[in-house]
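FW: tagging you since you asked about this chain on Friday. Here's the raw sequence from the shared folder, copied in full. Didn't touch anything.
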Amino acid sequence: MTGLFGVAADEVPLAGAPIEVGQLDGSVTERLAGALALVRARAGQCQVDERVRIALAARHAAPGAPVDRHAAQAGLSERQLRRRFGAAVGLRLKSYARVVRLHQALADAHAAVAKGEHPNWAAIAVRSGCYDQSHLLAEFRHAVGAPPTTLLADVLFSKPRTELPPSRLAQHRK
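HL: got it, structure written out here
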């Protein structure tokens, strides 16, 4: 088995993964739990491309580093890494790097808010592997169509309001 559903990640149809969720009985919650159990069971049968795993670890350790450096760390050419990465992950390296940068930026911003501070977007941009704050903002707008402050507010307000003091809630409503 090469992937979670018996195909490479880059071959999963746009309509969704070929999973037999419709055959599961029960409520929506029970069907979702059944689908997750099915995915977990299949995940244990997947073959992991060790070189892609090495490249992924390198990418997370140094998100701004050039692809050829990650390829060299994995013992592959840049072209081999791009091909194998797409088959294993289902995204191009550049798209995956964007996802990593955006997740890192949101995590850093959320950590600042949790400490009662305003996120320093310029510093967050550099730590996330962007050149500067405008690069980070452009990445967010391209990926999700909104600036990071909008997403941060959505993430904060998806939690019960009792988790933030009223003064912090007022600041994030602006």
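FW: Residues 157-174 have pLDDT under 50 and may be disordered.
HL: agreed, and The first helix runs from residue 28 to 43.
FW: great, closing this out.
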